[in-house]
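note to self: dont lose this again. the chain is below, predicted strucutre after it. 619 aa total, dont forget to put it in the shared folder this time
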Amino acid sequence: MRSILFANFVLVFSPLFSTPIRMAADQSSDGSSECDETRAVLLIQQQVEETQKIEDRDARIRTLLKIAELLWPYRETTSRDIFARAYELAEETYREARRGAMPDARGARVVYEDERFIVAEAISLRDAAWAGRLVQRISEQTRSDASQTRAPATTQLGLTDSVISLAITMLKNDKQRSSELVRSTFGSPATGALSEYLFALAAVDQAAADRFYAEALSAYSGAPLLEFFYLSPYPFALNRVIGPSSGQNVFSLPQAFQPNGPAQRLFVESLLGRAEKLIQLGPASSETGGVQPDAGPLFLGLSELETPVAKNQPGFLQRVQEAKLAMRSLLPPGAQINALEGGRQTSQTPEDAFEARIDRASHQADPKRRDQELALAAISAATSVALDRVVGAVDKINDKNLRPQLLDYVYFKRSQRSTEEGHLDDARQFASKVQPLDMRAYLLYEMAAKALKGKGDRTRAAESLSEVVALAIKAENTAQKARALLGAAQVYGSFDPIMAFDVMRTAVKAVNAQSGGDFNATSFIQRIAGETFSYNAVYRVEGFSLENVFGTIAAHDLTGALLLADKLEDTSLRAMAIIGLAGRCLRESAEARGSKKSPDRRQVAGGDKAKPADKHPPR
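---
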């Protein structure tokens, strides 16, 4: 039988002794409450031993990271050791994945999520110097392996994106080291991650971001055109890259972000310089098929910049317009038409863009490509065009498997918009047409949250949640069912703890009925797949995470939450549940002291002294 250490005693769960934690807390000589800081720390530490029983290495790494993160303010030396162990496991995973990766049909090797970066990112929030050393080690190891195996260019792109992603996280603690990491990638092909970093740096220090932009522009001034275009969003405060890759990235701009005049002039001058060199070369030779490869992308880029330039840098407008016309003249007639259509897309209304796609679909001879155009038309117009027109487009699709996926997406987005606008009856009606249980449950959670936030309407919130529970109970035991129940328990926890525990008991049974389900994720993905394309929509929902839900219900009854966590059969899930409720205790203890700062280690019995950051090298 499993036992859970709490404070300085061992509890063994037994029907004869159903509330040992609460009783022990009540009898405590120091009068401490059930949710006690010292006990919570010891409970978290106990989970380190439990991780040895977790067979899935990825799950073990993520559990160790969560333990290390929570212990850092209380047992920093222990936390560092746990982080180091997690990194060792991540390196083992990398080595095994590299040995076992098999080429796909095109000869490219399968790409694995690199757990080394996940560990380094967690460390970067606490010790940027240590994380920086790890990133250097990872980069050197990955480049060396790639050169030995002749890995495709995507390996380098993935490495660059991972380094920049970690640098964004590091901005919170060490801006200088963060910029150094990104600067180290300047010799690699640029990706959308570079623009993302510039906006993230601007949110912290726009003057520093302006200076860094000038460095990046200098580094990539001679790069291939599509890479150079990744430097277009920052100076003009655009949320997309100009040119043919405009739909691949959407950037979030910081509030109060100011477009940068000098940076605009630098970018436009560099872009015009490229266009003018192409004009001097004249029409392409027969060796390139009579086409200048950069003419089309330059035409699109200049077309999309025309309006921002007119607004912010009117002195360049005539040169931009002349260069645009010159690029068009370098294209063959058919390509000119396509380029013109591409240039017009930025000024189209949603209705015009929808009709243009429908028209293109009607001229497609290939039925699969026709379905693709119709599907993309429906996705892009899910909430911006009249519903009957969007559904009409879906009805024209031949692929009977694709049609229901699209209708689920359209009704899902319509329900979301109705909830945001406060039209909960409409939202409920749209949600009833969404078939996947987890998607419909998500919509009903949103409605419940809206009802609580707006008028504090608990009755309406309870109606939405009871519908989720009723649907889930009738469903077969699947991961969707378990997630739906977890989400309902999470929302109930904000206003009805009795129902939260009732639903959670059912949720635990549903989780136990699954093997290998991911119940620690805080998001889910809707995948729309046709024969020639796929589209993924990602939705965040905190209530799908066992850790979060146990933290919520523990606020009402820690003993009951612990007893319920012990019923989870999967070791990693049980550990994350206990970590979640113990973490909630630590947060409540910190709030009770009236400070959100890291606690004083002297207040925690047995707290250890931290090792200096520089003396803890990567292992």
